[in-house]
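Cross-check.
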Amino acid sequence: MKIRFFILSLLFFSLIYSCGSKKKLRQKYGIEEKETKSESKHTPTLAEIFAETITADDLDYHVYNLANDSMEGRETGKRGGKKAAKYIWDYYLDQHLLFPKKLDGYFQKYTASENNKPSVVLSTDRQAYKYGEDFISFFPHDSIDINTDQIIYVGYGIEDPKYNDYAYQDVKGKVILVAGGEPRDKYGNYIISNEVNPYTGRSLPSVWSRNPIKAYILRRNAAMKHGAKAMLYYDPLHKKYFWDNFKKHFAKKKLEVSVKKDSVYDFFINKAIFEDITGYDRPQDIEYTKKTRLYKVPLHINYKNNNDLIEGSNVIGIIEGQPKSDEYVIVLSHYDGQGKHDGEIYNSANENATGVAASLEMVEAFQTAIDSGFVPRRNIVFLNVSGREQDMIGVKFYTEHPVIPLEKTVAVIELDRLGRIKDLGDEEIVADFYPINIAFNGFEKESFKKNIQEMQLYNNYMTIKFKPLVSHDEFTHFMKKKVPIIDYYGTKNYSDFHQPTDTPDKISYDIMEKRTRFVFQIIWQLAYQKKI
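Predicted model, tokenized:
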């Protein structure tokens, strides 16, 4: 009797301790207690049914392939990054995804470079000039050596229906000299501008001189259009502006998408160089005297690029919606990792082979639904970007060169770090916890939250945490373009984040399955609902 009483007492106190431990763990890791409700009959939704095709085994397969040592950490521009991109390409091809009309396949290629100062020599037969003092540049170029004894002066370098400096000029392969400003009539009115100051009745500057940067870009584009090899730009009115920006440009190291390799070599020059070439210190004096536009001045330019160029690719596949649909839902994830450094491979399993694996499994789930006759109302775009670990150059390039109209993009859903939970002492104790974090912008807050919470009722294994958006992530660049976004992630609080130990064996694939299925159901609503 005493033994039985002892055993019952032990079980009783163990139960209390276990409940107390779970409660403490829930509180410690921010997991809310759920109210126990009597079970009611629930008819599975279509989204639930097709979400069942997403399995832990398949997610495991993709994560292990993407985070395998053979991928060498999937660093953008390196062999491993290219192998990962090809893995996604092959999967899209196997699943019969379409690719954007603007592309020749699933790859959106780009080139990026660091903003290191180049080494540049510019000299005439009279004098050698110093880079950073006498002349400057901003855009990165390939290394080159240019020698010429002819420089063509094209005045303002303007090409406009009302005024064209390139009329009857052959500048292909030549070095050209361009002056800032724009032409006026004898009364001082700008002859290109259609805008008038309502108070004075005088004409206002046109786009060719109103903003220094835009005016320069327009001239640069015109020079490229006509095939000029190099452009020397003299704008004394805005010299300080350009030189100050030159110092800021190289003050902070960053990666930026580079210009095309066939672009014009362009330099801002000072008064000394302008005088050396033309013999005049003011551009208007050349126009006034009607001197020849060809200057036979020996010129040598040696440009040495000190940057390492990165060749990257975004991988984009499309599931086509109903025939008349011109709206798009983008499923976003970055497939690159930290690469290989000091002999160690950073497999980047959770960050972010898991997000890519989840998106690939969603592709198959949506295709299964379509094969069963359930075609989404909207087109679904699977956008796997690279360059996340290099200042997010991949998503920057996409948002500046979108292959799907941004104004037709109704939502961007980002998948990130879906396979881990916080570092716990005993994962078995919290094996029934499947927390996922959601942050969003651009949706009506309360109705969106209510929609998710209703969905949670029949996905009672899922614990939802609505979090504020952070500023430094891929979706930030879509926010800047006023595109609604949702960010889904498991947890960011694990000790080996961005470490070589972020390996596939650390992923909780059962938890990842639950999270992926839940997110799939939300994306289903965005793609299939009549109204969002």
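DSSP finds 13 helices and 23 strands in the chain. The radius of gyration is 30 Å. Passed to J.P. for a second look.
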